[in-house]
Amino acid sequence: MKKRRINAKVARNLEGTLFIAPWMLGFLIFLAFPLGFSLFMSFHQVKILPTGMKYEFNGIKYYREILFNSSEFYDELIPYFQEIILMVPIIIIFSLLIAILLNQKLYGRFLFRTIFFLPVIFTTGYLLTEFVNQGEGSLGFLERFSLGEYLDTFLGNSTWGNSVKTILNRFVLVLWYSGVQILIFLAGRQTISNSAYESARIDGANPWEVFWKITLPAMTPFIFLNLIYTVVDMFTFPFNPIIDLIGTGNYGYSSALAWVYFLIIFIFLMIVMFIFVRINKRQRAATR
């Protein structure tokens, strides 16, 4: 009997290993090896010779150059970082409101859900770049109503003012990047029991109170998930100027720049997670 149990356990482990083997193989070949190789190149000066690639160890030279001597890196990073800080809340709030709207019993709601998700499929990478190069993706109301002059008056010629104008010019692109977030919020909204809303209506709660007391607290885990997803998605945005800097011909320098950028993204995500956890703890303490 004991041998049968052991054999059954071994069989289950073997089945699980076989199912996960393709993913592990793909991870090792297409992700783990390139990551390790790029880290290796970041500490070397890479030269391409007719006989192959030559690596000369230069330690942290490229990292020192990027962090302390590269003004171009900070000139591109800081304005784009400001744009991300402004774009992420816009995408989260817009996605949440649209998801709540699409959860209503509207005529043709399945069609509207498809329309909001289609940009995720079609407007990615090269195709999105071509849209913008052809003049699409811009609302054009800044030029039509001369709003750019008003923004210059109130915000001045600052980096934050330029970031606001850039986002308004690309506002359609911001909305196009909300499809996945809408889908996640929609799934989260459907996890809330209808009995909670019926009880609130019986107690005389209005829609505004229902939203703040029931919907928003129940959607907190999905807000956190969308927040992480949106931050990562914005840092890999096709119009990210840092990506263009990484694509230089110096493989060692580009690898070091990619790892520095990765660490910046990681630190930013940790800060976002820390702030969100603190706010969530305060909300839970207030409701007790």
Compile the SSE list and pairings:
Blueprint (H helix, E strand, L loop, with lengths): L1 H41 L1 E6 L2 E6 L3 H9 L1 H32 L6 H14 L2 H9 L7 H4 L2 H9 L3 H11 L1 H6 L2 H11 L4 H9 L4 H12 L1 H16 L5 H6 L4 H37 L1
Antiparallel strand pairs: 1-2
Subcellular location: Cell membrane
Main location: membrane
Membrane topology: Multi-pass membrane protein
Architecture overview:
This protein has 288 residues and is mainly α. The protein has helices spanning 2-42, 61-69, 71-102, 109-122, 125-133, 141-144, 147-155, 159-169, 171-176, 179-189, 194-202, 207-218, 220-235, 241-246, 251-287, and strands spanning 44-49, 52-57. It folds into 2 domains: 2-42; 64-287, MetI-like (MetI-like fold), CATH 1.10.3720.10. The chain contains 15 helices and 2 strands. A two-stranded antiparallel sheet has the order 1-2. Strand 1 (44-49) and strand 2 (52-57) form a beta hairpin. The longest helix is centred in the first third of the chain and has 41 residues, at 2-42. The mean pLDDT is 79. One of its GO terms (cellular component) is plasma membrane. It is found in: Cell membrane. This is ABC transporter permease.
List keywords for this structure.
288 residues, mainly alpha, MetI-like fold, two-stranded antiparallel ribbon, 15 helices, UgpAE/MalFG_permease, ABC transporter permease, transmembrane
Q: Give the CA-based shape.
A: globular
Main CATH class of the largest domain = Mainly Alpha
CATH superfamily of the largest domain: MetI-like
- Measured by DSSP, the beta-strand proportion falls in under 5%
Identify low-pLDDT runs.
Answer: none
**What is the count of β-strands?**
2
Q: How are helices and strands ordered from N to C? A: HEEHHHHHHHHHHHHHH
Number of helical regions:
15
**Secondary-structure class:** mainly alpha
GO cellular component, one term: plasma membrane
Keywords: Cell membrane, Membrane, Transmembrane, Transmembrane helix, Transport
Subcellular location: Cell membrane
Membrane topology: Multi-pass membrane protein
